[in-house]
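Progress against Task 2.4 (sequence-to-structure conversion) is shown through the following example record, which the project officer requested during the mid-term review.
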Amino acid sequence: MIETMSRTQTGTEGPPPSEGKVAKTIEKQTAKVPSDIFLWAALSTMGMSLFLQMSGNRHKGLLLGQLTAPILILGLYNKLVKVAGSDIMDQGIA
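C-alpha cells generated for the chain above:
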C-alpha cells in the first residue's frame, strides 16, 4: 500500500527573490549580442586549435581548444536570457 504525504508550507510564502542590479545590467547588455557571434567564435577557436595542433604547437592548441566549451556556454546563457528574460517578476507576468 502506498501512502501519500502532504507537504505543508513552512511559512516562507511570498515573492521569490529577484535578480540584483548587476545581474540585470549584464543581462540587458548581453541580450543585445547576436547568438551567432558565440557560435562563430566557438567554431573559430576550434579551427585555430586544429591549426596550432597540426603546426606543432600542441600545448597552445590544447589551451585554445579548451575555450570552445566556455564560449558555447556563454552563448547558451545569452539565448536563455533572450528567451526567458532576466526576471519574470519585473515584467509583471507572475
